[in-house]
Hints:
The structure holds 3 protein chains of 3 kinds. Chain A is an alpha+beta fold. Chain A has 15 helices and 8 strands. Chain A has helices at about 45-50, 55-65, 70-85, 90-120, 125-145, 165-190, 195-200, 205-210, 220, 230-235, 255-275, 330-335, 335-340, 345-355, 360-365; strands at about 5-10, 25-30, 30-40, 155, 160, 295-305, 305-315, 320-325. In chain A, helix 4 (about 90-120) runs antiparallel to helix 5 and helix 4 packs antiparallel against helix 11 (about 255-275). Chain B is mainly alpha-helical. Chain B has 14 helices and no strands. Chain B has helices spanning about 5-20, 25-60, 75-85, 100-115, 135-140, 145-155, 160-190, 195-200, 205-210, 210-225, 235-240, 250-275, 285-305, 315-345. In chain B, helix 2 (about 25-60) packs parallel to helix 13 and helix 10 packs antiparallel against helix 14 (about 315-345). Chain C is of the alpha/beta class. Chain C has helices at about 5-15, 35-45, 105-115, and strands at about 5, 30-35, 55-65, 65-75, 80-90, 95, 120, 150-155, 155-160. The radius of gyration of chain C is 18 Å and the shape is elongated. Chains A and B meet through strand 1, helix 4, helix 5, helix 7 and helix 14 of A and helix 7, helix 11 and helix 14 of B.
Amino acid sequence: MAQTEKFVLNMGPQHPSTHGVLQVQVELDGENIVGAKPVMGYLHRGIEKLMESRTYQQCVPFTDRLDYVSAMNNNLGFCMAVEKLAGIEVPERAWYIRTICCELNRIASHHVFIGSLTNDLGSATGMIYAFRDREKILDLFNIICGARMTCHYIRIGGVAADAQDEFFQKTEEFINYVPEMLDEYNRLFTGNEIFQRRMQGTSIISREDALRFGMSGPNIRASGLSYDIRKLDKYGIYGKLDFEVPIGENGDNWDRYLIRIREIEESARIIRQCLDNMPGGAFKGKVPKVLKPPKGDAYQRVENTRGELGFYIVSDGTAKPYRVHIRRPSFINLQALDHMCRGMVLADSVTAFATIDPLMGEVDC
Amino acid sequence: MHNGTLYLAGESLKEMLLPVIGSELLVNLIMTLICIVILFLLVATSALVFTLGERKVCAWIQVRIGPNRVGPWGLLQSTADMLKLLTKEDIIPQGIDRWLWVLSPILIFIPAAMVYALYPFDDGVIFADVNIGLFLLIAISSQSVLPFLMGGYASNSKYAMLGGMRTVAQMLSYEVPMVISLMGIIMITGSLKMSAIVEAQSEIWFIFLQPIAFFIFLVTALVEGNRPPFNMVEGESEIIAGPFTEYTGMRWALFFLAEFANLLSMGILTATLFLGGWQGPDFLPTQLWFWIKAFLMVLVYQWIGWTFPRTRMDTILSFGWKVLLPLALLNLLLTGFGIYIFKWLL
Amino acid sequence: MGTYLELHYLEELKRDFPTIEFAAEQAEPHIYVSEEELLPLMRRLRENPVFSFDRMGNITAVDYREYIEMVYMLYSRGFDKWVTVKCRLDREKPVAESMTQVWPGTEFEEREIYDLMGVEFLHHPDLRRILMPDNYTAHPLRKDFVPLQPKIEGGVLTWHRQKSSS
């Protein structure tokens, strides 16, 4: 009588496809996964603690290092929270520039998603194509603020510097390129039989489960729930813009992939509207040099590329925040990993990591 | 009777040596030794050429430039790689089955190099033109399963173990459709002799007579050679490098040497069995035709490999047993009928 | 931005949960609740169809030196409403009911609070340290935190308090 035994496979923290330093203890029965436990903390830098000893302005660069592939969105979340706490007005032009930057960054982040997903599925070619196009966005950031990834461009009260005509012109060129780019992706991956076979019907998260795990961002939308903070809260100028929130049906890996492809389209639409209606005026509101918000607390959430990013700031009336808490979407989304991997084979676990799209800088904070 | 370029070159060398040495037996012995050296050089250079070639082709497909720093067009890249691998620390992990672990990279190289003895490189140029050529070829190449399993088992690593298991599962299940798909060729040729198979294609290549078999062979060759999209053995995003995970430096390089030797092997075999081997129109020498076809097939394999994502283990196995095997059997049946109809028409 | 839970709902809650307090004159009055009534109140907020706070928007703890305050920010998708519930815990031995009983998705966040702030959660499915090493003894987000010194003893990484705090 043959006897089989379950064994635990430690995937990571040094593994080609754990997107940084995530460790997953996968319990295997042959190639079938019985359980997957994420273990994290390898990239823990204590950003929340570090922020307590910095002034509000000095805190902003830390947010770049949270979700380092969508730094702009993180800057925005923190700055909005401080603005809410201190009651700072942001001029409209700053909002338009902020929105363009955030949406560009969303596209860039989805490029990383597509790239790492295709790489994890064994097609290194896909990664190169996605990263090639991401480079175009990073060059745009280079024009606007001199940095490519950790931009620190969105500041409290506005943005760091006014955007030049060159930036708008190049952005428009990029937006015109987006349909061609997506067409290429669709021909290379979306239409690929192996790609579809591997992703359709695997790692399904139902609506109830997505809600239960507190998921957000494209992951919850793939499960069929329309939950987008941009639409719900209409923060900034998102209320004035015309865009759709793509929603999936089955909540499988395939939907999570398609949602991102469609989000790139929507982001491009948003950027075009911003470019067309760009107002003049100041790029930064009045912010005191030494910012001392009144006592109290404020919570601000924004739609990050990975979901609902929230900053909870407690002020004690001094120039430094008393306590900062960051609600990191990837951290919470990661709870679904075990559920997604159960009953799948080892190869699918990698796809599941990739489609949750966790970023260890954000998970470990 | 033979008039291949390489054959004629060999004959003239023989004629030159004969008056110098005198004994025909000794000359034949020297010629055999020369052949062995050439074959090994071929296997070794194939690795050198393909490390660069693979990277260049991959870069071309991936809209990159590829290696271009070492030497003109990066030609010395593979030499630099080799030197680097030679000078690397030889890490021997703890708790391994030492003998199996050391033997595995060496053993994997043997079948990869041995099959070259059975390839008809040119008209009359074949190291061992035995009458069970194709059978022997399959028998030898199927031995490469064992070193993978040995390496995987001996490494004392779960990734390597999984990789080794996968290799056995996929190679064993794909050997069946591969052999059955080649049966059609044997039925038409009426011989297992490699030179006979090539000569049977002087009128029409087997790719036209046996399109289904060609397709099956293409897929199974990719699986047997661990080429993407079927490189489950390595599956670098899941099991890191499969059985090679714990190997470093030159031991690891031996695995790669074998892999590139296999890649060229696949190209040659496909060209020989389906594309008429060394045969071709007269405006080019036969030897050139042979290499053009072989490299073209290698390019096709690389092209497939760099375009598609990797398939999943269970899909691979069910595809092999549920699709390819029935298809191969159907092909066998059709070939049988075809031969009878052909005979009846004559 | 969604609206805050209206005052009359809060007063309604006050009838059933006598220990809750809120400053009615504020624009967005936070609910302060005692440890004992925390879980029933949260259950009520989650399950009552009038509010149906189905998302735990934000869960965190703040060290105010005299006490530790748990902050729960609940969001209702259906009604687009917010409410903030706060609960003050004893700083020496902070214990609270785990919200995983109501919102299972708070598992990791509560583990993080346990790890960094030292709040113990009752009825949590898997209460372990999540970011810091398992054998770490301090809680970094506390205001009086002094980093521990790493030391390798017998091949195992251990953590020690500094001898003299300068």
